[in-house]
Design brief:
Layout lengths: L11 H11 L9 H9 L1 H5 L24 H4 L19 E2 L3 E8 L18 H4 L7 E8 L9 E8 L4 H4 L18 H10 L1 E9 L5 E3 L7 E3 L5 E5 L18 E3 L4 E6 L5 E5 L17 H6 L9 H4 L18 E4 L9 E3 L11 E4 L4 E7 L3 E3 L1 E9 L5 H6 L4 E8 L4 E6 L16 H6 L1 H8 L4 E2 L1 E6 L6 E5 L23 E6 L9 E9 L25 E6 L5 E5 L5 H4 L5 E5 L9 E6 L5 E7 L5 E7 L37 E7 L8
Parallel strand pairs: 8-13
Antiparallel strand pairs: 1-28, 2-31, 3-4, 4-5, 5-6, 5-7, 8-9, 10-11, 11-12, 12-13, 14-15, 15-17, 16-20, 17-18, 18-19, 19-24, 21-22, 22-23, 23-24, 25-26, 26-27, 27-28, 29-30, 30-31
The structure holds MU-OXO-diiron and calcium ion (2 copies).
One calcium ion binds next to loops.
Length: 673
Amino acid sequence: MASPASPIPLSRSEAYEESQNVGINPSDNATIAEVIRRRYGRRDVLRGLLAGTAVAGLGGTGLSVALPASDAQAQVASRFTFTEISHGVDRTHHVAPGYDADILIRWGDAVMADAPNFDPQHQTAAAQMKQFGYNNDFIGYLPLPFGSQSADRGLLFINHEYTSEEVMFPGIGRQEAKDKLFKDMTRPLVEIEMAAHGASIIEIQKNADGKWAVVNGSRYARRIDAGTTAMELTGPAAGHARLRTKADPTGRSVIGMLNNCAGGMTPWGTVLTAEENFHGYFWGKLDAGHSEARNHKRYEVPGNWYNWGQHFDRFDIAKEPNEANRFGWLVEIDPYDLQSVPKKRTALGRCKHEGAAVVVNGDGRVVLYSGDDERFEYVYRFVSAGRYNASDRRTNSGLLDEGTLSVAKYNADGSVDWLPLIFGQGPLTAANGFNSQADVMIETRRAADLLGATKMDRPEDIEANPATGKVYVMLTNNTRRKDDQRDATNTRAANEWGQVLEMIPPGGDHAAPRASWSLLVQGGNPADAKTGAKFHPSTTRNGWFACPDNAAVDPQGRLWITTDQGEAWQKASGTADGVWALETEGPNRGLGKMFFRVPVGAEMCGPCFTPDGRTLFVAVQHPATDGGEGFTRSGKGSTFEDPATRWPDFQPAMPPRPSVVVITKRDGGIIGS
Ligand code: FEO
Ligand code: CA
Ligand code: CA
């Protein structure tokens, strides 16, 4: 018999608002807005001196948000030659002329060869565990055979971030509201949710007609989920008492991963997948004075987004206070090895991780950048102790277990200091409740607070460009920034639009203690002065965007941005989310161009190129769910019975289905060229 429902202080949407839109960082550290203001000064910004073209050197003053010094420079040809599509919103997807955008795999399609046919009216956990999961986010392409650069056969690793019960299950609507309190979320439905989380690994190949297809019966096919997949905790926190539970007295073995959002690839052919909003899966109340109270509060545990704790004790913090400490990690998975156990790498810190950008530094050390996606949270960097060896794959994976995690402090002079999170150094001592490196990793946020890191506008995906050594950080928005935290333009106090930050390691040394930074663009409509948006002046009415979330660097070294405006799409831009190409170098720097658009209510995730640059995979997440109220042809929130769109099938009995879309050029050419 399930335990009675715990009191729910906030609905999921309210909790989301509290966590994502307010931010819970209690420290006094400077926000990025304050740093920008200090660096540029209000008067200079108002005069348009943000329009410098120079790349900021260490200590330099050039901020290269938008841009060119003369019309002549603006005439330089774009590196992206496709015909731009327009902003807009409707029930389907759109891609630039001359391209195909085909559905590769949808929620409910077979991953395992023996998966039953998808029947959304009668879904079961057993079926879901063999089928493609929900809300696809990160996509990683791994060539087959291993070690090749094959661009016509490979594996796709795809995250399934979360579930949307109102459009997944018939007859229940959205469940976390106070008047429902998950009353319809039975144990069988919760088990389906757990099975729909995690990841899918599929084999795909490009057939003679140039079209990609899933290989049925592939020996690599695998589902990873939240309810059954065993994972190992590694690194400095593994085995620590704070990671031990009744089910796992070793503190080294966890079932499942939660809310896996963006991710990254390693040079040795594994995937890093980021556990983001893990707090939402917990409910219950700690005993008064519990030793984990401060820690859980800093991560907003319990989040009460789901009622898993009603049916599974480990998600009730009153019954299993340490279980939440076993989530919020970067998870390394080897898609080439069906038997491999996913590894939660605790040396990389614990937060609401978004992406993971991995580079091999010039000296052979492995450097990993990751963001903590919540308002006023931080950007992190890990530098391995050991060195990469291209011929020793097994040892390479261990590189992520030993090294130094640092947090970014952005300075007004254009520099960024990487502050190491090392037990015993500075404030990270017993006096502040840290008794080991394990404590520092479990409470990464609080450690970073004490070091004086810079509070950012929701750091999401991070990507490094191997061609230039520059690193791009998607800062998605921060509508709750207060007046006294405004930047000098005075228009971005309530930053609905986000910005793209560029970091430049000195001499290409990603492990250096100090780098430089610059703003590439500030999102929003540049034609509306109130937004404070900054793009290249030649950017068209369709070339600007709001809320950068994911990014990819293509094999030609060009940057592509995807957006997630959430329920605020109508207010932030009026267009559905999509893919934009964005110039980063030369006189066109900051010039955006719209390439792909999602159906109403979806967000755009997972941009991923094949090694030849001729295929782009994108993930259309949660079609119909976000902001259906603002869609004139719908005007209300979506349900299974009445969604804002039934993309991609458009069949009367079929709900909308999160899907991976494969984009190719009809002439077989390179995407964007
Ligand atoms: Fe899952 Fe921060 O997006
Ligand atoms: Ca994201
Ligand atoms: Ca997102």
